[in-house]
Fold this protein.
Amino acid sequence: GSTQDQGNILVRTESYPRVPGYDIFENIQGVGSADGFGTEMSHYNQDVMFIMAQQAGLARTLDAGGAADVFWDNRVGTVTSAGLFQNSGFPTGLHLWENYEAVEMAKENGITAASDALDQARLFLMLDDGIWMANNATASAHNPENPTNETFRWFKIANPAGHVMHFETTRDGNSLFAGTSGGRLYRIDGL
């Protein structure tokens, strides 16, 4: 979970032997530890986690916290030399939507080609220049030399007035609700 000045601590559920929690950001080369903010964990594939630090420092782990990588593509603004931080409020909203049917199929049968085809996870994040959505958020990284629809891609989907602190999606993932620190509520349809 998020522990503002103490990083994003991953605590395992094993009862014996006890394994102490550790900061997932420590596994990102060149970054080390950072303030902990939002986290999202996949219900479809429990090895996939999204972790955030201050200024929308966003990383993704595909192996249950063993290693984490920067999670941007070439559409998102300037990235610092560490490759992690963007410009955003303090703190900022983060939300993962996953296809309910795919999650239920994976719970019953494990991850299969059929459930994978349905998943199409989307990650939503507020940056200073608007609300961004990553399609295929659990997929492999975008390769500009060989772009495909199978990789994640970031899209700017709205530019609300005010700083978004919280997101919720409809069950089908077609609508996003964004609540701002000033009390405004936005609905974005057609996702």
